[in-house]
Each structure stands twice: as structure tokens, then as C-alpha cells.
Amino acid sequence: MKALILAGGFGTRLRPLSCTRPKTLFPIVNKPLLQWVFERLDRNNFKEAILAVNQQTEFYIKQKRVPTYGLEVRYSRDPPRKPLGTAGPIKKAEKLIGHDDPFLVLNGDIFADFNYGEIMKNHREGKAVATIALYKVKDPSRYGAVDLAEDCHIRKFIEKPTDGNAPTNLINAGIYVLSPSVFQYIPKGKTVSMERRVFPKLAEEGTLFGHVVQGFWKDIGNPEEYLQTNRLILDDLAGKKTLSNVTEFKTKHPVAIDKGVSVGKNAVIGPYAIIGNNVTIGKNVRITDTVILPDAAVDDFSSIEGAIIGEGATIGKKTRVGRGCVIGDQATLKDGVSVANKSFICPGKEVAESILKTTMIC
């Protein structure tokens, strides 16, 4: 079985962190999202993963050397400076996918733990051109909502319905199975939306089906959702990755602390603190509800609450980082700086004075 992972998006809602890494490499409890995806594909007996990428994303993924769990991994590249939408990359990968069997498609910014084998089985048994994994949410307005018949065919597909206009609260989970006949619905070399063009057309023809899934599902499309996903997975892991024999600092579970982390005396880490590898944390530091990426440094007497700290960032002494803040890779906050809630600092920037109002420093 083959799976196509749509990984060519630019992650604009995750800036400034996505300025220096693709969404598929955002760590979820210290493991890249793509690694979680490969692991699940292997667990569901897939043999090949095709990554639909742009040139920059391909470079980052190869540099990261994500474990593939025995999967054969190949790349399908978007044309330079020409994004192909969500359907165009499927057409672009046609030769790699072939025309022999149905294939799985996964959006690269979705964290989901479903049985892919079940949706593949249902698709093969039906007469669908496409079978979409459907997930129930409170607010379907941000997604593609469907009107699902009793026989599981989708009567109507509406992308991002306005308030009150959604037929149900079942949404496209960003996971679907396609038969090779889908290629005839996608023009070659064009920017095409699967959600706005292909799915509505298939619904009209009666060849679009839905498969309601249970289990964990989360879109990591913005910083708040990214933090929430880490919290939920951390709960599930129940603190299995915490340091042992800790005597000089305090952890409030759940926490996850990777290899090579150094923590000073009287620091308090957690709850819901995720610390990447080779991070240095000074004495009397307080870190809660925060993700800190690898190689960052937090100096003495600083506090961070509800924030994301980028790779290699430096947080000075007696510095306060407020809730909802995102500090980009290699950015520096000087000693004594306070950063107002929901402020964004772009990669490599140096901040020497306190930020008193929500701001983006670029």
C-alpha cells in the first residue's frame, strides 16, 4: 500500500516558527510530526510513502534524517515558485503512485491516530472514487463539512461553511483514500483545490463517500493548536520521558525532557513543559505549559508560561515570556526583558527592551 503525504505547504499561520522549518518537522513531544506519521503508516502495513514537497521542504526533511521505520520514501516535487494547491500535488505524483491500486492521502499538518487499514478496506468494498475520513468537531466552519447519507455516500461537500451553513459537524479530517480514476478530475500542472473543486464534483456524481473515525485528531495549523496537541499527547504519554534521579530541581508532571538537557538548582519545570534536546536552563527558572525546541538556553530567574521557544533561542536573566508568545529560532531576549502576551519574535532578532503590548518583531 502507498501513502501520499501533502507536505509542501508554507505554514503561514505557524510563523515565525515555520520560517525555518516545514510543518511536518514541528516536534510533537520532542519527535517530529513526520516521524509520528511514518510510525503509524508502518504500523498499518504501508510499504511506501511519497512526500509531495517543495524544494525547501525536501531539503529540511533530508537534513533532519527522520526515521522511516522501514518505509520506502520517495519525493514528488512541486514546480519552483508555483504551489499546486491540495489536488495539484496528487496529479504531479501520478507516475509514482501508479494506476493499480487505491492510495492513502494525508495532510502533512494533521496529527491523527486512526486505523488506516479500516478506511482502505471500506473504500475497496464500495464504488467510491474518494473516501474521506470524517471527524466530529464543535465548529466545522474552519474545515470541509459534509452531508452524509445513511449508506455513507456524501451528498454535499462544503469547504469552510459560514456560520450556520454547515450541513453537519462532520468534517474532512485531512485523510482520504483515492482510486486512480481520480487523476482524470485534476488538470496537469495547474493549481487545484481538492476541497473546492474535486470533492464537490465527486459528491455531485455520487462517488464521494465518508468514513467516520474515532480516536485522536488534531490540526496543528496555528501556535495555540500546536501547544494544545503537545499537551494532549503529553497527557497520553503520562510523563514517560521525564528525567530520572532528579534532586536539584522540581518537575510538576506531566513533563517531557529530552536528552542532553541541563537544569539549574531550584528550577521548576512543568506542568506541561516539553524541553528539547541539549536545552540549557538556569537556576530558579519557572517553565509551564511551554514547548522549548532543541539547543535553546534560558538563563537564571526567568519565567516562561504558555509559549513556544524556537531552536537555538536565548532567553536572558530575569526575563519574562508571556502566554501565547512565539520566539523564533536563534532569537535573543536580553536580560530583564518582559514580553507581552501573544507577541511574536522572528528568527535571529535581538530584543533588548521590554515589549509592553502584543507585537511582532521582524
Q: Your description of this structure?
A:
With 362 residues, the protein is an alpha/beta fold. It has two domains: 2-222, Spore Coat Polysaccharide Biosynthesis Protein SpsA, Chain A (Alpha-Beta Complex), CATH 3.90.550; 238-361, Hexapeptide repeat proteins (UDP N-Acetylglucosamine Acyltransferase, domain 1, 3 Solenoid), CATH 2.160.10.10. The protein has seven helices and 30 strands. A seven-stranded mixed beta sheet has the order 3-2-1-4-9-6-10. It is elongated. The model is unreliable at 241-246 (pLDDT under 50).
| Fraction of residues in H or I helices | 10-25%
Specify the overall morphology. elongated
**Strands, total number:** 30
> Any guess at the CATH architecture of the largest domain?
Alpha-Beta Complex
* Number of helices in the DSSP assignment: 7
| CATH topology term of the largest domain | Spore Coat Polysaccharide Biosynthesis Protein SpsA, Chain A
* Mean of pLDDT: 88
**Main pleated sheet:** 7 strands, mixed
Question: Radius of gyration from the CA trace?
Answer: 22 Å
Strand portion: 25-35%
| Low-confidence runs of at least 5 consecutive residues | 241-246
Measured between the Cα atoms of the first and last residue, the distance is: 44 Å
Structural class call reads: alpha/beta
Domain count: 2
CATH class of the largest domain: Alpha Beta
- Read across the widest sheet, the strand sequence of neighbours is 3-2-1-4-9-6-10
CATH homologous superfamily of the largest domain?
A: Spore Coat Polysaccharide Biosynthesis Protein SpsA, Chain A
